[in-house]
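Re: protoporphyrin IX containing FE structure - here you go.
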Amino acid sequence: MSISKLTPSSSDSAKPKINWARIDEADNFANTVKLYRQGKYDEDSFRRFRLQHGAYGTRMTSDYAMVRVKLPAGEIYPKQFETLSRLSEQYSIGSAHFSTRENIQLHWVVLEDVSEIFRSLAEVGLTSREACGNSVRNVMCSPLSGVCSDEKFDSTPYALATAKFFLRNPMAQSLPRKFKFNFTCCEKHGMVRMVDVGLIPEIQQINGSEQKGFKIFLGGGLGNRSFIGHQLEDFTPEEDLLYTSIAVMRIFDRLGDRKNLARNRMRYLVNDMGWEKFQNLVLKERAIVRATQSVVTKLKVDTTPDKITRPLKISDESGSSVPDGYARWLKTNTMKQKQSDYRSVFITLEAGDITSNQLNSMATLIREFSSEGKARSGFVQNVALRYVHEDDLVKLYSKLLETGLAKSGGLTMTTPVGCSGTTSCNLALTNSHRLAKEIQRKFLELKLDEDDDLTDSSIKISGCPNSCAQHGIATIGFFGGGGRLGKDMYPNYQMSLGGRFDADTTLGQTCLRVPAKRVIPVILKIIEMFKENKQSGDTLKSWIHRIVNDSEDSNIKSIGDIKKVLEPLVVPPTKEDDPDFYLDYGSDTSYHTKTGKGECAA
Amino acid sequence: MCCLTPSVKVTTDIDSLRSEIRDKSVRVIDVRREGDYKQDHIPNSVNLPLATLLSDDSPERVLKLVNSLGIDDETPVVVYDDTFGALASRVAWTLEWIGHSDVTLLETTYGNWKSLGLETDSLTPEISNKEHSMNLQSDILATSDYLESAKLRDDVILIDNRERLNYLEQHIPGAVSLPYRTLASADGILRPKEDMKRLFDNRGISGDSEIITYCGSVGTLSGLAYYALKSTGASNAKLYVRSFKEWKNLEKPTDKQEDANYWDLSAE
Ligand code: HEM
Ligand code: SF4
């Protein structure tokens, strides 16, 4: 059993610049739950209220909620880690979960305790408000913004200002559907063409002076049907950032489909209307917004640079030996920053899960190692400590070993993304979460993280077609479903290949269905095919890219060729021959699909 | 003997304890292991390791132990541990059970006491035997038989104080989950009274109901919950002291949260 220390923590660390919380929302939530339990609130309006405040329903029960705490731009501070550690022990399962959209989630929370969580979050400036529901969801920013050597400028302050502007803003309280902003650092680190509004910082020379701005992509998004975003114009100057955002949201608010919930994300509107028409509407609307709002409405962008101070060390490193595994970890979990002598260190988690003890130690690690005094959650259910001085890396690695956070492969294909699946999601058909962990354990055992050919590839696994794990943009993506042999059902996945989320963002192409218990052998077989046919300089990603683009001329030329090789591996055995085949990971009872009411549209 | 007062004092704060120790007006019980106690402890405290108590917690044996610790009916007793108050609670509850009314928990743990730089000692005080009377308080104890019949009434609230995952996997039918960690504050073994009240109030756990607590095996975590309830004025709290371990051994019915793989969300 894990008990966090009762001693007060040091308070010399960096403080959050923005307080996202409002304490009265805790009381309000508590009271509303009471009224709901007394039958004074109907199901639908209560659900809307609950989601607006960041509490999802939970698989097969109305007693529990999942609280999705927003980390705008991914920023998280030591005190916030400590609070989340305590909350995960008190109200959840002793672990928390980093999501793919820079939220941190507490699962299996008793609905009546949610307000207590709000209360504690408010003490450290965090909120889950508008983390679910038809609102502006957490505003993401690349975990490398500010340190990436390819970026034009740091977009973090713009992400924070955008989040601040829309949070609790009346214009964003009842949109037709959820609405997502992603800011990034550069084309390579991407993630901007598969979201409602994606933004890459850009600089243009205008009349001899440098003008900051963005490349803005609109109308992308993943889900049951996924679309790639379109670039609005060559360059959007920073003054136009807010007007563009407002214009897009107004159009969506006005024209978005409020009836057909399954097709009402903005990407459907863009697709139905056609990009050019939508683009024109946005530009016209923006002119109106600019003309009517420019005096009063401004983004409050705080570009004062963060203080970078290397934490003082009491002991020096002399004599401390380099632990085993250090080189492997350094290679697969850290990145050089544009600031010389500093690295960003990515912590490898298993499908985003982190124990309450580890959350607590993250607070200490930030204080001891990060010169910016905070951490950043990333795009792949992970968290990064940035501004770690090169000379402190060995020491940091030793500390990570002590807390079980030193697994390698964090920046490679060996760390798959897995949505919550049947561990808690009402719509799940398979245990995608556990499958992600199984793959990771196996691949680390095989040391695949050290294989340079595999680092830039990705594996993402959703438990149903809804794409929460973003399988559509994975090199190898999976989404769950049920398979059947005679009367016996088994967990099955649809596999897609060749998805990307960088400048060449593409959705993966469907390859074939792979039973859960064959996913690992199938991936290994794909790697084997690649090794046999690769050209010099190839990575798995570049090889698959050629295949999906019909420009490969080795033995394996198409997805169809890959499928042919894999087909023998996915033939279901009879239940008598292989009973385990019919069990999902993490389950010892026979597999059946079972779903409850989904809330993604609520 | 005391009677039921509405809002009972269940903890003793650090300052009061220090002055009571100076006046020698209190018996302090350290429930940690003997080795730990011998190293250092709160000055003048006596040692009653929980395991010693549990090896035979029949009323007669407990009475003997209590006498040997120099406690009579009038002696104020304060209990502490280094385990967030759970072990101390189990000992305090047992004293209450045999009829000792003036027993409270130190508001913090020994570890925190030490980290605050407060006085410690390694001397074992000389204790002379006292005579405590036996006045068994059966109404704070729930047995499995009692629990089975009580559960049929709908004015009884049953609380499971184990961790959430254990609860989801298996629990006594009708129990609500309130993990023991929920009861503590950042620096005390129990939340401040108002905080605790709000937590219970949100859960619909009201002081007027009969409330039974249980945990995994020996009634420590649920002992802490027993005192948490008392601190908010609950007047009819009972401890199912043999807890879930016995319930399972007796093969009584259990419930679980079906159709969800919650264990796989845990990072342990
Ligand atoms: C039709 C219903 C749903 C759709 C279309 C949907 C769509 C998505 C998408 C596309 C993402 C990826 C992040 C991004 O937007 O880039 C996402 C993330 C997520 N969604 Fe959903 N979602 C749905 C329902 C749910 C439900 C019912 C749950 C469970 C409570 C859920 C839990 C999550 C989680 C946990 C994430 C973050 C990923 C992770 O780290 O696990 N979603 N959702
Ligand atoms: S992809 Fe499906 S199973 Fe996974 S979290 Fe989303 S809705 Fe649930």
